Amino acid sequence: MTTPASLTVFALAAFLEIAGCFAVWAWWRLGASALWLLPGGLALGGFAWLLAQAGADFAGRAYAAYGGIYIAASLIWLWAAEGQRPDGWDLGGSVLCVAGAAAILLAPRG
After folding, report:
1. Do residues 55 and 65 touch, judged by C-beta distance below 8 A?
2. In what helix (H) or strand (E) does residue 33 lie, and over which residues does it extend?
3. Any stretches that span the bilayer, and where are they (predicted)?
4. Three-state SS for 104?
C-alpha cells in the first residue's frame, strides 16, 4: 500500500535522480570532467534503490506517483542549482502533476 511516508522516499529519490542525471548533463553538455560520471552513477543507483523502498503494492503505481514529485523537484533544481526561476506555467503544470501524484498515492483502495 502506498502511504504518505512514500513522499519522503519520492523526494529523496528525485534529488538523487536529478543529481545523477545532471552529472551526465554537465559532462556531456557543459564540458565537465568525466569524473562527474562516478558520483552521478552512484546517485542514480541510490535513486533506483530508494524508489524500490516506496510503500506501493505495484511498481507501476509507485513510478506513476513518483513522476509528479519528480516534476516538482526538477523545478526546485532549476531554481536552486541552475539559477532559473520557474515561471507561472512551470508552477501551474507542477501543481497539476503533484495533484495527480496525490490522487494516485492517497486513493482509497480495497
Report:
1. no
2. none
3. 33-51, 63-79, 91-108
4. helix
